[in-house]
Amino acid sequence: MDKLREDKIIADLLPQEFGKQGKIWVVCLLFFAALGVFAYGRQLYYGLEVTAMRDYASWGIYISNFVFFVAISLVGSLITAVLRLTNVKWSTPLTRIAEIIAVSAITFASLIIIVDMGRPERFYNLFLHGRLQSPIIWDVIVITTYFFISLLLLYFPLLPDLKIMIGFKERNGKWLQKLYVFLGSFWKNKAEQFKITDKAINILAIAIIPVAFSIHTVTSWLFATTYRPGWDSTNFGAYFISGAFLVGAGGVVIAMYIFRTHYKLEKYITDDHFDRMGKVLVLLALLYLYFNFNEFLVPAFKMKKSEEDHLLGLFTGEFAPIFWFAIFTSMFIPIFILLFKKGRKPIPAFIAGILVVVGSWFKRFLIVTPTLLHPFLPMHDVPANYHHYIPSWEEWAIAGGSLAGALLVITFFARIFPIIPIHETILETESHENEKHF
Amino acid sequence: MKINQNSRRDFIATTLVAGATLAGCATKNPFTAEEIPDVKPSGEMVKLLSVDGEIIEVDKAFLKPVPELPAVMNTAAREGIAGKKFVMVIDLSRCKSVKKCQTACNHMHHIHPGQNWIKVYPMQEAEHTAPYWQPTTCMHCDEPPCVKVCPVDATFKRKDGIVLIDSDRCIGCRFCMAACPYSTRVFNWEEPKIAKEIADKPYSCETSVPQKVGTVGKCDFCPDMVRQGNLPHCVSACPNGVFMFGDLLEDTVTNGSETFRFSELIKDKAGYRLMEDLGTKPSVYYLPPVNRNFPFENKVESGEEEKKA
């Protein structure tokens, strides 16, 4: 490939400074993140009393937000590992997007779980007195493992790109240059180095699949290891994983669209990518739908006494509006949009992605709260406000702040590093051209 | 002062020495009269065993009683009373929801207002079955779901069958509350409203006092009372003798005025446990509400509470 084409790719894909829109976006995110920090300050001062959680609804949107974050982080393993190992080439430009979503989501999953703790200052007890029989300890172990594998899967493919960026000293400015040198100055594009990283990436790509399955299966077991109606289900692990792949893929489609339009990457994130990701989304939505049928129709067929109030509350009762909203926005409507070729164009696919992610957030709320409000013994001998759960402003602010924080991490990552792998894109283009020659 | 890890003998010595040194532990020599101006030496000396095992002499005037320290060390409280297996029998035919049990429990454990460790449920299994009152305590399960899920061993099962909470260790994750099928656990969402002298006491797993913000609380079977040979507060407070407490290994339960052979009582009155199908193996047994002492009258909450099994 001629040098000119290569320079063009590098110039297209180098990280760019925030434009006016980017600045507004960052300021908005910072505002919401700061609001979340302020609300958490109040919570630290007054205790969990500032939330609407009480003895029955003892877990609320912090925990559903945690499940949401863990779910969306699974996409890193889907795009980088599953698609890589099955030799799917088209997903190469999406790997870094998927991996940074994974890293930032799993980081904020860990943070939000600390936010939920009544005594966060005693976090060290998990290490001092940790008991291996508790699913929380399993979660601590697998989430930490997943975080580090994801971080390495983000870092290793970045090394050749770091070398390219170190070459643009004036463009980078002092601080970024220091960062690039610190992270990647040892990389010399040597064949041995590529051999080692290729091998490492392959090992990590294989290792991350069981770990990814573990993080969300264990997260589902936080619920499924209890007796409560709605959680006492052997279907829960698979139900969570399928839902996680769906919301993660939805997140990637949203990020693809935003990066593509904002950084003018139409040549690299093509209509074809949206078409293929659209098909992936349909498949995942159908899979999740299948597990939803299992999760709700089988108990509904029997209508055991203990399940009845919970199920009717979802189908026709207190939680019915959210339940049907979540089912339709996260599954039926996106499937309907993306089944058509026109629906898999960037804009409709972007809308479908948003629907999936929003619906999935509310789906996580429905997994946590309604079950807690339908205990085995009737709710009794408690103040009247214990019978319902409507999150307080502090909870919304903290949950929103954590989402803003996760987006900030992704935004700043894309400002500092090329969001599309430069080196791999050059290689792909070369191999394409070689194929054409023969 | 951290006394939890010390042995009992050290503990006694440190307690006395601590009493003597509290007034000026930062200064060079706390045993001189200049450092504690309002205490004059009496001239009467007492021999004490120091932490290092040395015998030391201290003027009696510098010794102060230290009643705030817990009677039982954390390690002993976690272990339980050897050779005992505590059980409770609740006779539903005697309950008319006087709720003296609840009042006594709330008072003696200094529970935050509005919280209840004992709840008295109006129960009705189905439309055409008889309603009855069902007081619930912690079931002190032999297969406790709460203990299984606790990540830090803050809630634990003792060898005498009692399930307790170490509020100094609890991280407030509330997994135990989700796991408990009996909804017996409560959470201190805010700083518990307790008198300052109670709140300043060191926490004891056996008294569950003082409750602490951000941690879980629940019925503890009053092991501090049991250790002294007394009955739990709910048992002695009930005017109708609903609660019977005792030792399964002695096969005896008592409500204070009547004593029963546990196995015969359960056999004769067809005793049962709640949610047996879950396999939690509770230590609390119920006697069915037959031949009742009182008619069921739900005056307070009629129409307000939904009744279901």
Write the layout of secondary structure elements.
The complex is a heterodimer of chains A (438) and B (309).
Chain A: H1 3-13, H2 20-46, H3 61-73, H4 75-85, H5 95-116, H6 125-128, H7 135-155, H8 159-166, H9 169-184, H10 191-224, H11 236-262, H12 271-302, H13 305-315, H14 320-338, H15 346-372, H16 393-416, H17 422-437
Helix pairs in contact in A: 2-16, 3-5, 3-11, 3-15, 4-5, 4-10, 4-11, 5-7, 5-16, 7-10, 8-9, 10-11, 11-12, 11-15, 12-14, 13-14, 14-15
Chain B: H1 8-21, E1 45-49, E2 55-59, H2 74-79, E3 86-91, H3 100-108, E4 119-123, E5 132-136, H4 145-149, E6 155-157, E7 163-165, H5 175-179, E8 186-187, H6 196-199, E9 216-217, H7 223-227, H8 233-237, E10 243-247, E11 252-254, E12 259-261, H9 262-268, E13 284-287
Parallel strand pairs in B: 3-13
Antiparallel strand pairs in B: 1-2, 3-10, 4-5, 6-7, 8-9, 10-11, 11-12
Question: Could you explain the architecture of this structure?
Answer:
The complex is a heterodimer of chains A (438) and B (309). With 438 residues, chain A is mostly helical. Chain A has a single domain, classed as Up-down Bundle (Formate dehydrogenase/DMSO reductase fold). Chain A has helices spanning 3-13, 20-46, 61-73, 75-85, 95-116, 125-128, 135-155, 159-166, 169-184, 191-224, 236-262, 271-302, 305-315, 320-338, 346-372, 393-416, 422-437. In chain A, helix 4 (75-85) packs across helix 10 and helix 14 (320-338) packs antiparallel against helix 15 (346-372). The longest helix of chain A has 34 residues, at 191-224. Chain A starts with a helix and ends with a helix. The mean pLDDT of chain A is 93. Chain B has two domains: 8-62, no CATH class; 83-287, Alpha-Beta Plaits. The model of chain B is unreliable at 1-30 and 302-309 (pLDDT under 50). In chain B, a hairpin with a 4-residue loop joins strand 11 (252-254) and strand 12. Chain B starts with 7 loop residues before the first helix and ends in a 22-residue tail after the last strand. Chain B is 19% helix and 17% strand. Chains A and B meet through helix 6 and helix 7 of A and strand 4, helix 4, helix 5 and strand 8 of B.
